[in-house]
Design brief:
The complex is a heterodimer of chains A (about 270) and B (about 325). Chain A has ten helices and seven strands. Chain A is an alpha/beta fold and about 270 residues long. Chain A is globular, with a radius of gyration of 21 Å. Chain B has helices at about 10-20, 90-105, 110-115, 165-170, 210-215, 220-225, 275-295, 305, 315-320, and strands spanning about 5, 25-30, 35, 60-70, 70-75, 85-90, 120-125, 145-150, 155-160, 175-180, 235-240, 245-255. An eight-stranded mixed beta sheet of chain B has the order 3-2-6-7-8-9-1-10. Classes of the chains: A alpha/beta (about 270), B alpha+beta (about 325). The structure holds iron/sulfur cluster (4 copies). One iron/sulfur cluster binds near residues 180, 188, 191, 209 and 212 of chain A.
């Protein structure tokens, strides 16, 4: 049995450390990930007491010249300005936290890389000379990223847990199991069994299988797991009647750039009946 | 063991009456068959076994182990109401006996015990294997119910299996009649449920045929989440936002099928390969547990096969091994 003598490391009597300096920034994106932080209405005021919040669009000044401990970066690199801002912040911080799918995988904007130029050319900002287009890419294509909080949008609880952990000096741990782990625990009927093209088995969870709980299949917004069985996933979807183009498009919608090997698996033989 | 008789239509009257004194939990047919709290006994579904096992009622998906505040530790004392579980198949009764062994005999897990304490287990014997995946007949299952109902068409034979069962049968005696009938050992054998043809797989660990399963495994953990005997968990701490010295330590279900399961400090993963993980589950179920406890962990319910997205039938794989 546990006794009251059990002492927690938190209880050391040393001088309190100075609070961590945090900055939140967004480059090309929809600001939804930053909103996910704010959506923790009940806790946000207590949460920012644990840290020294130096920058946050819409609610605080921008302070780009500050020296940070952690910079949370939303959005992806889509033009020259994004890249300059990202590089500058990388120099001014100890750690970069990639916040949300655009920053982590490139998300929907990076899907452009898998279509023909003629499909999007007319949408580029030609008129504004200062917007200099670059291929949309996640931030780790340009700078070193220390932590990832994936998802479109990221799970608001995960953000709170992350900030609390760094505030108390505990190393944040990414969730690496596939979506199926939480999905089955949540008692859902498997959507693959219902013929839906669910990407849960190859997608990192941590979202509490929110889409499947709402009867909507996983599209892979949190990016692939390290341990995915990709050729098998492709085979299963083919067995269920989905064609190559559909499967490739679906897998590339949220994380295409993290699946560079995708094509090579379309002719792999796997013996599966389901 | 003492046997009573009950007319078929009296069964639901009996369950209805039970419901007035106890929480009644039994299988219902929804999107799939699940064990749920019963409001209307007409909802009880006995044609097939439940898709999800009963284990979450005892070994809960999430359990707060303790709360802390600075140096103070508060261990919660969860309490379950008196519950009657009806419609439990023989495999699942044995699965409960195995989890009792793990959580109550080998250690005393206060959380599991308190969930399990006030429960009555009312079994429903399969006249024939309800699913093509069943193989309980190949394993050495025992009687482990408070009352076991044997369906004989328009009546039921009810075997009293424990003191608790005797108590219930006495309390509701108006629903039962005395009989001279007995249930023979032969009648306890479930037809079409003896698919697994090997008693010992210890020498087959390096057999190339495992590949047949490994290649079509996603490491998705459906098999362990739906297994009525799997008892593995992970532990996480969460601190309060207002005061991070306050918080709780929680355990939640985990699975040997994922790499995280064997990840230790320094990021080393003991079972990195899918093959090792795939085999670990089957060997824990059909070999390691037996070596330690003298009985297989697996009870042959077939859920891990039915729930697997690619229907990996390890029984077939083992049977085909030369
Ligand atoms: S519905 Fe999707 S996420 Fe859930 S178990 Fe099935 S494949 Fe996995
Ligand atoms: S359910 Fe099937 S695919 Fe998923 S981990 Fe288990 S054996 Fe592998
Ligand atoms: S291993 Fe499979 S067949 Fe055996 S008890 Fe678990 S779910 Fe049932
Ligand atoms: S080690 Fe795997 S097979 Fe064994 S009880 Fe744990 S989850 Fe189940």
């Amino acid at each position: 049995m546990l006794t009251e003598k059990y002492s927690l490391p938190l209880e050391n009597k040393k001088m309190p450390k100075p609070k961590l300096k945090l900055g939140f920034y967004g480059i090309t994106g929809c600001a939804g990930c930053l909103l996910s932080v704010i959506f923790n209405e009940d806790e946000i005021l207590d949460l920012i007491q644990l840290v020294d919040l130096k920058a946050f669009p819409f609610i605080k000044e921008v302070n780009p010249d500050e020296q940070f401990d952690y910079v949370f970066m939303e959005g992806l690199v889509a033009d020259k300005g994004d890249l300059e801002e990202l590089e500058k912040l990388r120099q001014n911080t100890r750690y970069i936290v990639s916040l949300g799918a655009c920053a982590c995988t490139g998300c929907v904007p990076a899907y452009r890389q898998f279509t023909l130029k003629e499909n999007y050319e007319h949408l580029l900002y030609r008129k504004q000379k200062e917007v200099e287009d670059i291929q949309p890419t996640p931030i780790d294509a340009h700078v070193k990223v220390d932590y990832y909080i994936p998802g479109c949008p990221p799970d608001k609880r995960e953000i709170v847990t992350f900030i609390k952990n760094i505030a108390i000096g505990k190393e944040p741990k990414p969730y690496e199991n596939p979506v199926c782990v939480e999905c089955r625990k949540n008692g859902n009927q498997c959507l693959l069994d219902l013929g839906k093209p669910c990407l849960g088995p190859i997608t990192a969870g941590g979202c509490n299988s929110v889409c499947i709980n709402g009867n909507f299949e996983c599209w892979g917004c949190r990016g692939p797991t390290k341990d995915m069985n990709l050729p098998l996933m492709i085979k299963i979807l083919k067995e269920k009647g989905f064609d190559d183009k559909f499967i490739q498009d679906r897998m590339r919608t949220f994380a295409g750039l993290k699946l560079p090997m995708l094509e090579q698996f379309f002719n792999v033989k796997v013996n599966v009946k389901c | 063991m003492r046997v009573l008789k009950q007319k078929k239509k009296r069964l639901f009257e009996f369950l209805g009456k039970l419901k007035q004194s106890y929480e009644l939990i039994a299988p219902v047919s929804k999107d799939v068959v699940r064990f749920e709290k019963i409001d209307d006994t007409g909802d009880i579904y006995l044609e097939k076994n439940s898709y999800f096992p009963l284990k979450e009622y005892f070994f809960r998906k999430e359990e707060v182990l303790f709360k802390f505040n600075g140096n103070k530790i508060i261990v919660p004392a969860p309490e379950a109401p008196a519950r009657v579980f009806f419609g439990i198949r023989k495999c699942d009764l044995n699965a409960i006996s195995h989890q009792d062994m793990v959580f109550m005999n080998q250690v005393n897990d206060p959380y599991y015990s308190s969930m399990r304490k006030n429960s009555f287990l009312l079994g429903y014997h399969c006249n024939t294997a309800p699913s093509p995946f069943c193989f309980c007949g190949s394993l050495e299952l025992v009687d482990y119910s408070d009352l076991m109902f044997y369906d004989r068409g328009d009546y039921l034979l009810v075997e009293i299996g424990s003191e608790k069962g005797k108590f219930l049968a006495g309390k509701f005696r108006e629903f039962f009649v005395e009989t001279n009938a007995a249930i023979t050992q032969k009648e306890k054998i479930i037809p079409r449920a003896d698919r697994l043809d090997k008693k010992d797989i210890s020498h087959l660990y390096d057999h190339p045929d495992w590949k047949k399963g490994v290649d079509i495994c996603l490491s998705c953990s459906a098999c362990t989440a739906l297994c009525p005997t799997c008892y593995c968990f992970e532990i996480h701490d969460n601190v309060g936002t207002k005061n991070p010295k306050e918080g709780e330590r929680k355990r939640s279900w985990s699975s040997c099928q994922v790499q995280e399961f064997t990840k230790v400090a320094g990021e080393h993963v003991f079972r990195k390969e899918r093959e090792e993980r795939f085999k670990h589950r089957i060997y824990h179920q059909l070999d390691y547990f037996k070596q330690k406890n003298g009985i297989n962990l697996c009870v042959g319910c077939g859920r891990c096969i039915e729930a697997c997205p690619t229907r990996i039938d390890f029984v077939e794989i083992i049977n085909e091994m030369k």
